[in-house]
Each structure stands twice: as C-alpha cells, then as structure tokens.
Amino acid sequence: MRLLVFGAEMRPTPHEFCEPGRILDEPGWPAKTDPAASRYTGMTRPDASDAAPRCSGGLEVTTAGGWRYPGDRTADLVALGILVIYGTTIRTPLYGGFDSALVVSLLLEPVACLIAIGLRLLFQRLHFDAGLTPGTIGLVALLSMVGALCQAAIARFVLTAGGWAVSSWSVAQSWVLPFSYYTFVLLSWSLAHLWAAARLDAATDRQRAMVAETEALQSELQHLRHQLDPHFLFNALNGINAEIPVHPGRAGEMVRELADFLRYSLDHRDLRPVTLAAEIEAIRAYLKLQKARFGDDLDFLITVEPDVLARSTPGFLLQPLVENAIKHGFKFGQRPLVVDVAITFSDGCVVMRVVNCGRLLPDWRHSGAPGVGLAVLQRRLALHYPGRHAFSLDASDDRVIAELKLTGAPCLT
C-alpha cells in the first residue's frame, strides 16, 4: 500500500501507521552544566550527593583532591591470592609440609603487596603512569629491586624469629633467593599496573576527544540549521510580498501556511531526529505554501511507503531539494510544474527522491559553488551519515531527479 497526495493536504490515517515511531534518543555524553561534575572525567554526575570518585591513571581521585586507593582493589586481592598460592607451592618442599609453607606465605606475601602499593604511589608521584618508556622501565626495575631488598630483609627476620629458616641455605642464599624472587614479583606487579594505567589513560583521552569532537559537530549542525532558516524565510517572505499587491487573498493563505511550517520548525529546533512521518508533514506544509503562491501553475505529488514512516531522519533534510525543484523548475520547466516527492526503502537504504519538470544546465557541475540549501544539505549528510549516504542530481527526459540514499540511523542525536 502506498500513501498518495496530489496537490492536497495529507493526513495519514491510523491504520496506515498505527505506531508513529520513536524519536531516536540514544544516550550520549551529558552537558557539563552540573556544578558537581567531576573535573577529571568531564562527565556530569547525576546526583551532587554522589561522592563516588573518578579514576585517573589508576588513582581514584575525589572532587576534593584527595586519594583513596591507588588502583583496582579487587585486582590486587586476586593477585595477592595467586601470590599466596604460588608461594605456598614453592615453599612446601623447603619446609617439608603444607602448613608451615602456608603460614610463611600468609605472613610474607601481604607485606610484598603493601610494598607494591607503596611503589605504585611513588610511580604516580613521578608520573610513571603516563606511559612506559625504556627509561621508565629501567627506573621501575631499580625501584622494584630496592623494594625486593627490603622484602628480603623482612623475610629473613620473620623466618629467623619464627624458626622457619631453611637450614640448607647459606647466608648468601638466604638473601639472594628471596631478593631474586621478590624482584620478579614486584617488577611484574608494577609493570602490569603501569601498563593497565597507561591503557586507561589512553582510553580516557580517546573518550574526551570523542566528546570534544561530538560537541564541535553538534555546534556546527546548529550553525548550519541557523544558516538554513534565514535562507528559507528570505525566499518565503519575498514570495508573500510579491503576492500582496495582486493576490491579497492568496498572500493571506501563504502567511497561514508559513505559520504552520514555522511551528514545525520551532517544535524541532533542538536538532533531534524526527520521524519521516513528521518530515513529510513539514514538506507538505511547505508545498501547500508554494501552492498558495503559484496556484494552478504548481502541483505536487507525495508518495511514501508506510514501512518507512516510523524511521528517524534529521529534520528539514528534504526541504532544500524541494525548494530547488520549485525554484529551478519554474525557470526551465513547463507549466504546470509538477514536483514529485517519493520515499521508499530498498536494499537496506531509505531512498528519498525529488523529481521536477525541467533540465540541468550542461555545465552545472562546473558552474560554481552550490547554493546555500544544497551546501548545507551536503554538510549535514556528512555529519549525520558519515560514509553511509549518497546524493545524486541528474536529468532525464526533461526531468531533474535529486536522490538521497541513507543507510542506518543518523549520528549526533
């Protein structure tokens, strides 16, 4: 079933699209208007009483500027558990039993964990978490060796005081073996943390860049919209002014149609996508405005597949094409001028086509920059459908055909 309108008002009936669709409103980065927003992440906190800190380079930072825990507590607990299991496994043959090995591991490995956390705080003060370089890795290795030496001294004291010293070890072995073991543990733990912190910072930077880019593109879209509205009003008011002296009744009807169109414009000034059903209503209002101006010299036909009515599209996407069809159609076409607007769905794409009587100039592609309407349209397509749109303007059999092909939902919603 196809929805047809020929030079008359179009009002889709409920059975033609019982569900008018949902304006696409995907969650994005909120505007930074909440004074409780974290200055570290750029995100707005929904509740000012929420004191949950944000993470920056592995250090949880509160808005007051203090610190709580340098890293992921859960990950550290898991690492400590693995270290206790591994330490118990390698100590069991030395002590000839599981119980003694477990006790020694439970005494020594938490100390190693505390030293690792202390090293982490030192790395953050030295800004080592900004990225791993050969120089940074060398300093991390040196500091890990210092920490391992401290841990080896603590281990020697604990083992001697508790009667767990390994009798088969010489004095040198009682220092060198724990030192080597804890150097490996602390160096691995530190490098793993710094690598994760660097990845987190890189991801945060990418998110901030995406937020900044999105805000810039939304600002550009707002500018484009403001550029398009005066262009349309200039043409519409000039048309009304031309009709007042000769056809005052027609001019009054044009003012009423213009008011309907501007009401739609104000209702959708927030730049959110609209349904194609709403966009068609706007095009219908615009064509009725032009019909009131040109009378029998203009007819229009709107053909829409009901399946596309609930799909989302940026507002006023078709208006520049319809405006150009009327403007240039009267210059080169026959009377009455017929403007045919068709919207279909084919091969996963929404296809919008505006056809009018007339012809293109042979050198129209090289005649200069496009008009304001087409220039704004092409830029909006690039922003809303990057790499997912196609626009063509061709002539065939005394007809000019402007066609848009759009894939997927619009970006920057």
- In whole angstroms, how far apart are the ends? 31 Å
Radius of gyration, Cα only, in angstroms?
35 Å
The SS-based structural class is: alpha+beta
The tally of helices reads: 8
- Mean pLDDT across all amino acids: 75
What is the global morphology?
A: rod-shaped
Report helical residue fraction.
40-55%
Poorly predicted segments: 1-67
Strand line-up across the major sheet: 1-5-7-8-10-9
Largest sheet: 6 strands, mixed
Our estimate of the beta-strand percent is 5-15%
Query: What is the ordering of alpha helices and beta strands?
Result: EEEHHHHHEHEEHEEHEE
Say how many strands there are: 10
Structure report:
The structure is a single chain. With 413 residues, the protein is of the alpha+beta class. It is built from eight helices and ten strands. The chain has helices at residues 73-95, 98-125, 134-162, 171-243, 248-267, 276-294, 319-332, 372-384, and strands at 3-6, 54-56, 59-61, 274-275, 298-304, 312-313, 337-346, 349-357, 389-395, 399-407. A six-stranded mixed β-sheet has the order 1-5-7-8-10-9, covered by helices on one side. It starts with a strand and ends in a 6-residue tail after the last strand. Residues 1-67 have low confidence and may be disordered.
Task: Break the fold down into its secondary structure elements and pairings.
Elements: E1 3-6, E2 54-56, E3 59-61, H1 73-95, H2 98-125, H3 134-162, H4 171-243, H5 248-267, E4 274-275, H6 276-294, E5 298-304, E6 312-313, H7 319-332, E7 337-346, E8 349-357, H8 372-384, E9 389-395, E10 399-407
Helix pairs in contact: 1-2, 2-3, 2-4, 3-4, 4-5, 4-8, 5-6
